[in-house]
Amino acid sequence: MTPRERADRSLASSFERYLQDKGKGRGGDGGNYRRNVARELKRFAEWAAGERGRDDWTGVVPDDLDRDPAFEDLDERMFREYARHLAGDRGLKQNTVQTYYRYISAWCGWCVNEGYLEAHYAQRASATAPLPEDDGRKPGDQQAWTSEQRHALTRHVDERARNAIEAYTTLPESTDPLDKQRARYTALKAARDRALVFVLAYTAVRVGELLRDPNDPRRRGVRWEDLSLDDGSMDVYRKKQQWDAASLPDPVISPLRSYRQLMDPPTERWPVFPTFDQRTLAGLVQDALTDRGERPEAITERREEYARDLLLALAEDIRPPSITTDGARSILQRLSEAAEIDIDHPKHDYLAPHGGRRGMGEVLVRAFGYTVAARYLDNSEEMVRERYSHIEAGELGDVATEALNDIDSI
Length: 410
What we know:
The protein is mostly helical. Helix content is 56%, strand content 5%. The chain is built from 18 helices and 5 strands. The protein has a 3-stranded antiparallel beta sheet, with no helix packed on it. A hairpin with a 4-residue loop joins strand 3 and strand 4 (233-237). The longest helix is centred in the middle third of the chain and has 26 residues, at 177-202. The chain is globular and about 65 Å long. The termini are far apart. Residues 6-112 form the Core-binding (CB) domain. This is Site-specific integrase. It holds the Pfam family Phage_int_SAM_5. It comes from Haloarcula onubensis.
């Protein structure tokens, strides 16, 4: 099915397949979670059809058309309207509104991966703006990858990359060229995912500093020229609007070095984490070769020589864009599910990118204190103390317990 045909499909046509996918991997998705999601998807479809909402709401389908809501009717503005609809329901608590919207947002992300939607409209800032703030949430309540989760995810992507690279590098010389290209592409994707996970897990770099932001041309994603694997450093455009060096600790170096060797980028200006989206790469390759004077027939023949347009882009030095922060979230959703990681969090059912940063913050504060952690996290010590105050509170609780035991024993 082509992207155009998917866009023409009704919203409800995707629900059962989405729920089946959510039912795989983790037991919790098969029970209450799946039932709750199914209920909210049904309500969303009813709202989109104009059967729910304020009296003057007629749904997302243009007035001159008589059909069910389809994916082509959805955009950023529509999700903003739905957020406003949920927030205006006086019978829902603030956190419940957030939870119901997250169900729909997760479905939206899946629709992007499956080709029904072009972008994750539900996570855009303007779409979520009408949602109420989470009430009663403390810094320590934010997701932070635990040591067990970090080890489970890094083990999974490491094993996956090792297997894919070995399968590619041990192919017999007689292997068909296209089959060899397919194996290289699989290895490249696994190696990219491994490098991305290790960087997010161990560097504490903000995902917005690492990848491309479509709304900010200065954030074009790190390039190989920004990395110094020998020195263990990486130049990133910081939140404070200036370039700065971030540390690359030892666990990150080997995945990056192996990935770079496999990719063999034509120039140092290539993104470290390029998009693998076929639709994006197909358009990029066609436009670039057209600009170089190639005729359509020649372009078609050239593309047929390669199993994937990414490999042609590497061969012709047609530089693709970096993946976006939304893309990183989609990758981590896919990997968290494949690794069958146990995640118990009210907001995310996967290991979100910011959780890697917060997880490292927890490790650094506990091991070295707030001052060292603040330097590594590129934050003020005051802010780190505020965000990780639950650690100090817990330590003070241990001190109080010890003091009580000492006094009671007298």
